[in-house]
Amino acid sequence: MQPIGKYIVFLGLAIVVIGLVLWLLGPKLDWFGSLPGDLRVEKPGFKLFAPFTTMLLVSVLLSLVLWLIRRFFG
User: Does residue 44 sit in the same domain as residue 72?
Assistant: First the structure.
């Protein structure tokens, strides 16, 4: 059970770090979610927002971070 406790602590620390980054850099990240390729449709009674480019960017960054973690700590 001890390794599970370590993973939970590291996950909690990661969430805190991500929260601090978003809190401190939030105003500077206003471009995030409105990149070219993000679909936004607004009509009377209908709204659609599909952030395709943003999702792709987040996926690539998370894959890179996880690969680095596994490479150096795994």
Answer: yes
